[in-house]
Specification:
Order of helices and strands of chain A: EEEEEEEEEEEEE
Shape of chain B: globular
Number of strands of chain A: 13
Number of helices of chain B: 0
Strand content of chain A: over 45%
Shape of chain A: globular
Number of helices of chain A: 0
Structural class of chain A: mainly beta
Oligomer: heterodimer
Helix content of chain A: under 10%
Distance between the termini of chain B: 40 Å
Radius of gyration of chain A: 13 Å
Strand content of chain B: over 45%
Helix content of chain B: under 10%
Distance between the termini of chain A: 36 Å
Radius of gyration of chain B: 14 Å
Largest sheet of chain A: 7 strands, mixed
Structural class of chain B: mainly beta
Chain lengths: 113, 119
């Protein structure tokens, strides 16, 4: 199974600050047929199911604000929230979909300081 | 619009079984895999299983052994998760989620079903 390691566990920042969340995979997620990385980022607010933010490591889903961006390749990935807003308070998860079982990082809780 | 609507809260005794349904609409059921994920109280997301509604094939996380079964009913566009021999550690919110064109992330999720296992 692919192990996905996410850090930090939690993050407390002031409004407008930059948030950076890291995700590392135990093997490359570079998908041969399209040369893209099979890594997604989800946002989960309290009492809600997860919401897909980013697919293929850097493609923002429709309607996701452009302050959210994903980067990285093969085994090392980053989710960046460029200017933290109050509505971004949530737990963020990375997930690999390169192979089954589909594995998630343990989550990063983002709070406002 | 795409919707995944799950069945309601369940309270079960240890050793019992539970069935959770996931009624889908707004897309071609056979064209997307359905995954099941759970979240224990205050914990992260744990992948359980996947079903291919078109071929009827399935895949399971190893740590559930033979306790879990997922099925798909194309006539009602509904996916089911069956979990048997319940124990307290199975207390969690269970989600179904649709996979975007394979391989893909989970683009739509059900609202979640709380299963509480308690004597």
């Amino acid at each position: 199974d692919i192990v996905v390691t996410q850090s930090p566990e939690s993050l407390a920042l002031s409004l407008g600050e930059r948030a950076t969340i890291n995700c590392r995979s135990s093997q490359s997620l570079l998908y041969f047929s399209n040369n893209k990385n099979a890594l997604a980022w989800y946002q989960q607010k309290a009492g809600q199911p997860p919401k897909l933010l980013i697919s293929w490591s850097s493609t923002r889903e429709s309607g996701v604000p452009d302050r959210f961006s994903g980067s990285g390749s093969e085994t090392d990935f980053t989710l960046t929230i460029s200017r933290l807003q109050a509505e971004d308070v949530a737990v963020y998860y990375c997930q690999q979909y390169y192979s089954t079982p589909r594995t998630f990082g343990r989550g990063t809780k983002v709070e406002i300081k | 619009q795409v919707q995944l609507v799950q069945s309601g809260t369940e309270v079960k005794q240890p050793g019992a079984s539970v069935r959770i349904s996931c009624k889908t609409s707004g897309y071609i059921f056979s064209s997307h895999y359905i995954h099941w994920v759970r979240q224990a109280p205050g914990q992260g997301l744990e992948w359980i299983a996947v079903a291919n509604p078109s071929a009827g094939t399935t895949g399971y996380a190893q740590n559930f052994g033979d306790r879990v079964t997922v099925t798909s009913d194309k006539s009602t566009t509904t996916s089911y998760l069956d979990l048997s021999r319940l124990r307290s550690e199975d207390t969690a919110v269970y989600y179904c989620a649709r996979e975007s064109p394979r391989p893909g992330p989970f683009d739509y999720w059900g609202q979640g079903t709380l299963v509480t296992v308690s004597s």
